[in-house]
Design brief:
This protein is 42% helix and 12% strand. The chain is α/β, with parallel strands linked by helices. The protein folds into 2 domains: 4-47 and 302-394, Aspartate Aminotransferase, domain 1; 49-295, Aspartate Aminotransferase, domain 2 (3-Layer(aba) Sandwich), CATH 3.40.640. Pyridoxal-5'-phosphate binds at residues 41, 105-107, 131, 176, 180, 214, 216, 242, 244, 250, 255.
Length: 397
């Protein structure tokens, strides 16, 4: 018999993916260059040439079995050492090879991390607005996702509400900074306060509460500001990283879990991930891609385009009277819609071939997301459409 649970999930497909399909279909009618598709977070800037070079060199240097064979379960040992060393240099945390578990990007890193620190029925708390895939990531482990309402004034953490969500069933807090969809970077002050609260609660409840820190946008930051590294604030942190956005290789599916060496039972977590991977089938990410990523460990694509796009869009939104918090990173912005129901707002935007994603899907109704990982030239052409949309539909002068 087919699984009822997954059958039911088919009735609620991803809103973002649906909009992306709509944009592609519309593109067939009017030319995709005329569709201002702000739906999907698919990086537009090319991979660094060094990544392609690394692939070419690897294919010349190594035997077929090394290139295309299974890697050991926790990942290629040399690759894990390169990553540990790089993280240690960048963030001053004494990671070693044994703290790094290679995964099929952030999705898989989170799938492992959640299973490591929860049992079915436990609660995982996250903060709105949040990446909608967190729901299947968490719920398919049997854990329960709890969402703290947004602090819409800054999109930092709404601490008053957060404290109301804490109880002995909470085993993990899932955070994402720089954040999809708000673009906000959690300040050191926010992370200090979060750590303080969780340390107090760990003592009160007599068990650990892990932070699962989802960091695929760690390098996409603006104004020369660095994103504070969560593990430096809280020992029981599992950092979930992905090269999808920093190297523009989401299709290659590569990332890792980095276990803070000071975390409770830190040396057990990677071996536990190995066991988890046996069950969920996310085991042994591509050997060649692991090695190519390691050769580019301190590199990124040219991410400056995203800051340029952000400034163009942010300035236009402000000029048109939108309420919007300026992003500190990522390639997303999350303004308030010009009417209460953001779904209606985004539907009306389609008339102007603007593809915007309603905030409801991120747990923040009344807002909408624009993923501006598109060519700057297209961003520039979209601004008159945005102006026409709000002038016509909302009488903005
Ligand atoms: C916040 C966040 N987490 C996780 C992911 C999953 O990315 P990947 O599995 O490609 O690393 C995404 C993808 O867009 C994301 O935005």
């Amino acid at each position: 018999m087919l699984s009822q649970k997954f059958k039911e999930m088919c009735n609620a497909p991803s809103v973002i993916r649906e909009l992306s399909v709509y944009a592609t279909e519309r593109g067939k009618e009017i030319g995709y260059e005329n569709v201002f598709d702000y739906s999907l977070g698919n990086p537009s800037v090319p991979v660094p040439e060094d990544f392609n070079k690394a692939i070419r060199e690897l294919t010349e240097e190594l035997a077929s079995s090394a290139l295309h064979g299974y890697s050991p379960n926790p990942g290629n040992p040399e690759v894990r050492t390169v990553i540990a060393t790089s993280l240690k240099e960048r963030f001053g945390i004494p990671y070693e090879q044994k703290h790094i578990f290679m995964t099929s990007a952030a999705a898989s890193a989170i799938a492992h991390a959640v299973r490591c620190v929860t049992s079915p029925g436990d609660e995982v708390v996250t903060f709105a607005p949040f990446f909608p895939e967190y729901r299947p990531y968490i719920e398919q482990t049997g854990a329960v996702l709890k969402v703290v309402p947004a602090d819409t004034s800054s999109f930092q953490i709404n601490f008053e509400e957060f404290e109301r969500f804490l109880n002995p069933n909470v085993q993990a807090v899932l955070i994402n900074s720089p954040n999809n969809p708000s673009g906000i970077v959690y300040s050191a002050e926010t992370l200090e306060r979060l750590a303080q609260i969780l340390n107090d609660k760990q003592n009160e409840y007599g068990h650990e509460i892990f932070i699962i820190s989802d960091e695929p946008y760690r390098e996409i930051v603006f104004d020369g500001v660095k994103a504070p590294y969560v593990s430096n604030f809280y020992d029981n942190t599992l950092s979930c990283y992905s090269y999808s956005k920093s190297l523009s290789i989401p299709g290659e599916r590569i990332g890792y879990v980095a276990v803070n060496p000071k975390a409770k039972d830190a040396d057990m977590i990677v071996p536990m991930c190995v066991q988890i991977s046996r069950g969920i089938g996310h085991n042994c990410p591509s050997s060649i891609i692991q090695m190519a990523a390691a050769r580019c460990v301190s590199m990124t694509s040219d991410l400056s385009v995203y800051e340029k796009n952000m400034n163009l869009i942010y300035n236009k939104l402000k000029e048109l009277g939108f309420e919007v918090v300026r992003p500190g990173g990522t390639f997303y912005i999350f303004p308030k819609a010009m009417e209460e129901d953001a779904k209606v707002f985004c539907e009306k935007a389609k008339k102007y071939d603007l593809i915007l994603v309603p905030g409801d899907t991120f747990g923040a109704p009344g807002y909408f997301r624009m993923a501006y990982c598109i060519d700057t030239e297209k961003v520039e052409r979209s601004l008159p459409a945005l102006e026409k949309f709000v002038k016509t539909e909302y009488g903005v002068n």
